[in-house]
Amino acid sequence: MTLKKATFAAGCFWGVEATFMKVKGVVQTEVGYMGGHTGSPTYRDVCTDRTGHAEVVQVTYDDSAVSYEQLLDVFWKSHDPTQKNRQGPDVGTQYRSAVFYHDEEQRSSAERSKETMDASGRFKRPVATMLEKAGPFWRAEEYHQKYLQKKGLDTCHI
Asked: Which site among 78, 108, 121, 140 is 20 to 30 Å from 114 CA-CA?
């Protein structure tokens, strides 16, 4: 078993985490912040829309059980990648759609996957998802971890 990391931003991290927790081969999920320009951000900081961070889910997965490409498929199906800096009623750069790649192989896979999504005709608008090099992962406060599970909920979507 080889464990790898993948990091995705697709709106509010509670629902995104719940989605990835169900994927066979995912061994751990953590919610947090990535892509900003300040150190040790808090939820309150990120919500000001001034830190540049996105709400992300960092996924630890067994690459012999699930491929990065399969995780990308889950990512594309879990949100509307055509919305820039928002998902549904949540607005701000912290809710942007982004794939944070950890190495060149992930970058290349994410680029191909994004191009395929854009060309598929599935969406009426162009895909706005950003591809960003993974930087420091700042783990969110404990009450955000497995938030929906703690509340006995499966999803936060209406």
From this structure: 140
